[in-house]
Amino acid sequence: MADLKDILNEDDDLRDEDLLKYVQGDISKEDQHKVERQMADSDFVNDAMEGLQGVRNKRSIDQYVEELNRNLQKQVSTKKQRKQKRKLKDQPWIVITVVVVLALCVLAYAVIRYHQKNLNPSSPTQTDQKKN
How many domains is the chain partitioned into structurally? Predict the structure, then answer.
């Protein structure tokens, strides 16, 4: 889709300009019938025509289209910026935090095991129990 202003498929005979001319009443009878046939054949074209007919100021439709395209571009660029902000490589503090928490867990496990061995040195071990 090289032309972003033309939302209809390339294989359609109907163009955005034809829709605008139809709504504004600046279309020949032959083209008017062609548009009406397309409306009857395609729900998409019919919905587009209903939307265009709902616009009060028919001459400012191009301004509406440009404004919508600008807003769409802003939203798309904002979403891209959010995705870039969420990348893990841009936030090394998360990796550091995970490593520190894991290290503390391993250290706590080692201290608890060492402390348990020192408290119960007289308890028989498994090798002592096998000898008896």
Answer: 2
Are 82 and 31 contained in the same domain? yes
Q: Does the residue 130 lie in any domain?
A: no
- Please name which of 12, 10, 9, 29 lies closest in space to residue 21, comparing C-alpha atoms: 29
Domain that holds residue 31: 1-86
- Shared domain check, 9 and 63: yes
For 96-122, the pLDDT digits (tens) are 999 999 999 999 999 999 999 888 766
Burial-class residue 14 by CB neighbours within 10 Å (0-12, 13-18, 19+): buried
Q: Is the pTM of this model over 0.70?
A: no
Burial of 65 (0-12, 13-18, 19+ CB in 10 A): middle
